[in-house]
């Protein structure tokens, strides 16, 4: 018989409750949701009912007054993570902490020191480490099938609509409130690059900026809100098109991302339209208080000689990662938009897998199967079987690379990682 653990969630938003809460509730033999904390009472009410949880808190102070369960998920916004995780470690929780850990290097170091002193454990949600296709890619590299790895070419295709939703109108639009875009969107990529390279970063160089989503591109005859704009049905970024037309084209999901972010599920055409007409998601993409970049490149040289080039861009039709691994004896491609993992040994027979088949075979879901894998790793950790991949100490490296890349991008210099950790 499996051991059941009690788990609480602070930050009952998209990740906390729509993803982890749902996954926990699907595994009642392993998890019981003991308490929920969120400043939005309507989320507490909805998920309290769904998960049959009676301990509901709107106040962080009251929630942290005592320990509520064996484990805690921290899925609040980026700048709240360290404050809450320090409290959680003091109370002896085993923590599942959303990424990025923090945009602030000093805070990351403070948390690392506290975690080292504490008996508590922190697993960071670098979910792609558990996604079947990304794991398979690592195994293929380790097998020597492409010889020695020389270079990784990584493309993070944010997609125009996702950029508008999350990084222009939404939660991750402004660095003061959240994190630099590289950390928010690409700490997974930076984590994976050093995992695949099998080495620590040595030098980092980055370029990028915000070229498109600013007032300078606002047409003189356009309105500041989509609902009043003459381009409501023609602008690629119009809220009507992103939240109504796209939603309809996807079969009008009652509870699907990103629609359940702008209006509380179950979603209807009326609730979505009211949300964008009256809320932040109906602002013109050229008239928001956003300052995060819309494209960025990062070049990393690793201590073992492997090089990596990461490109993140808003300007893609579809969302997904495309990684190409160049080895001395072959090439490996992982392409989420083509649902393809392709091994091409030079002069040899190609092998190909559909990423969706790998995910289905692992019975996984979310982020290419990574969300399910993360919850399984968290369960293992609670059972005392620590899997090192995404423990806090391991996850710090991707953040140090991101901090260095941001310094490089702003100063226009290459950064030596020797003094960056
Ligand atoms: N692992 C991944 O791949 C991944 C993907 C997306 C987002 N994230 C990260 O997950 C975290 C949460 O993102 P999200 O999309 O769920 O955001 P969200 O806005 O949907 O959820 C955050 C929730 O925290 C609540 N909250 C804010 N302040 C609070 C406080 N003081 N006490 C209690 N609750 C509070 C908000 O009301 C909201 O419900 C972020 O750090 C984000 O960067 C990770």
Protein model, in words:
- Helix content is 37%, strand content 20%.
- The protein folds into 3 domains: 5-125, NAD(P)-binding Rossmann-like Domain (Rossmann fold); 128-213 and 290-364 and 392-419, Dihydrodipicolinate Reductase, domain 2; 218-282, no CATH class.
- The chain is built from 14 helices and 15 strands.
- Helix 5 runs antiparallel to helix 14 (392-411).
- Strands 14-13-12-11-7-10-9-8-15 form a 9-stranded mixed sheet.
- The mean pLDDT is 97.
- The protein binds nicotinamide-adenine-dinucleotide.
- Residues 10-16, 37-40, 43, 60, 75-78, 80, 98-99, 125, 127, 171, 184, 261, 367 line the site of nicotinamide-adenine-dinucleotide.
Topology at a glance:
Elements: E1 5-10, H1 14-25, E2 31-37, H2 41-51, E3 55-57, H3 60-63, E4 71-74, H4 81-91, E5 94-97, H5 105-117, E6 122-124, H6 132-143, E7 149-157, H7 160-168, H8 181-197, E8 201-209, H9 239-249, H10 259-262, H11 269-278, E9 295-302, E10 307-313, E11 320-327, E12 330-335, E13 340-345, E14 351-354, H12 355-361, H13 370-382, H14 392-411, E15 415-416
Parallel strand pairs: 1-2, 1-4, 2-3, 4-5, 5-6, 7-10
Antiparallel strand pairs: 7-11, 8-9, 8-15, 9-10, 11-12, 12-13, 13-14
The protein binds nicotinamide-adenine-dinucleotide (NAD).
Nicotinamide-adenine-dinucleotide binds at residues 10-16, 37-40, 43, 60, 75-78, 80, 98-99, 125, 127, 171, 184, 261, 367.
The number of helical segments is 14
Name the beta content range.
15-25%
Detail the poorly predicted runs.
Answer: none
- Assign the CATH superfamily of the largest domain: Dihydrodipicolinate Reductase, domain 2
Specify the helix fraction band.
25-40%
- Helices and strands, in order, run as EHEHEHEHEHEHEHHEHHHEEEEEEHHHE
CATH architecture of the largest domain: 2-Layer Sandwich
Give the cofactors and ligands.
nicotinamide-adenine-dinucleotide
Largest sheet, strands/sense/barrel = 9 strands, mixed
Give the C-level CATH assignment of the largest domain: Alpha Beta
Distance between the termini: 43 Å
* Number of structural units classed as domains: 3
Shape: globular
Determine the oligomeric state from the structure: single chain
Helix and strand content put the structural class at alpha/beta
Return the average pLDDT rounded to an integer: 97
DSSP, total strands:
15
- Under CATH, the topology of the largest domain is which? Dihydrodipicolinate Reductase, domain 2
> How large is the radius of gyration?
22 Å
- For the biggest β-sheet, the strand order reads 14-13-12-11-7-10-9-8-15
């Amino acid at each position: 018989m499996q051991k059941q653990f009690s788990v609480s969630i602070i930050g009952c938003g998209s990740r906390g409750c729509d993803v982890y809460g749902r996954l926990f509730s699907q595994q009642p033999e392993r998890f019981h949701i003991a308490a929920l904390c969120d400043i939005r009472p309507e989320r507490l009410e909805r998920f309290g009912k769904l998960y049959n949880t009676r301990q509901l808190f709107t106040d962080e102070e009251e929630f942290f007054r005592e320990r509520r369960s064996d484990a805690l998920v921290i899925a609040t916004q980026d700048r709240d993570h360290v404050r809450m995780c320090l409290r959680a470690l003091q109370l002896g929780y085993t923590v599942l902490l959303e990424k990025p850990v923090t945009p602030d290097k000093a805070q990351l170091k403070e948390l690392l020191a506290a975690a080292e002193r504490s008996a508590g454990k922190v697993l960071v949600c670098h979910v792609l480490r558990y996604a079947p296709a990304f794991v398979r890619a690592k195994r293929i590299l380790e097998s020597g099938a492409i010889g020695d790895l020389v270079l990784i070419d990584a493309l993070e295709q944010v997609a125009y609509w996702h950029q508008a939703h999350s990084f222009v109108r939404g939660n991750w639009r402004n660095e003061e409130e959240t994190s630099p875009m590289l950390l928010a969107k690409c700490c997974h990529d930076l984590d994976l690059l050093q995992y695949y390279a099998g080495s620590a970063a040595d030098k980092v160089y980055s370029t990028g900026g915000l070229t498109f989503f600013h007032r300078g591109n606002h047409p003189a005859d356009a309105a500041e809100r989509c609902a009043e704009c003459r381009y409501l049905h023609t602008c690629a970024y119009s809220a009507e098109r992103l939240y109504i037309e796209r939603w309809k084209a996807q079969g009008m999901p009652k509870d699907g991302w990103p629609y359940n972010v702008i209006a509380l599920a179950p979603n209807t055409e009326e609730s979505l339209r009211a949300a964008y007409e009256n809320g932040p998601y109906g602002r013109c993409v050229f008239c928001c208080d956003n300052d995060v970049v819309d494209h960025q490149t990062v070049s990393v040289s690793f201590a073992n000689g492997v090089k990596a080039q990461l490109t993140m861009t808003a300007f893609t039709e579809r969302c997904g990662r495309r990684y190409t691994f160049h080895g001395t004896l072959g090439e490996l491609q992982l392409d989420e938009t083509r649902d393809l993992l392709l091994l091409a040994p030079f002069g040899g027979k190609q092998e190909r897998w559909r990423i969706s088949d790998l995910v289905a075979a692992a019975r996984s879901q979310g982020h290419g199967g990574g969300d399910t894998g993360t919850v399984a790793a968290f369960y293992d950790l609670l059972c005392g079987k620590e899997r090192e991949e995404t423990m806090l100490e391991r996850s710090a490296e991707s953040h140090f690379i991101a901090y260095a890349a941001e310094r490089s991008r702003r100063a226009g210099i290459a950064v030596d990682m020797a003094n960056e950790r």
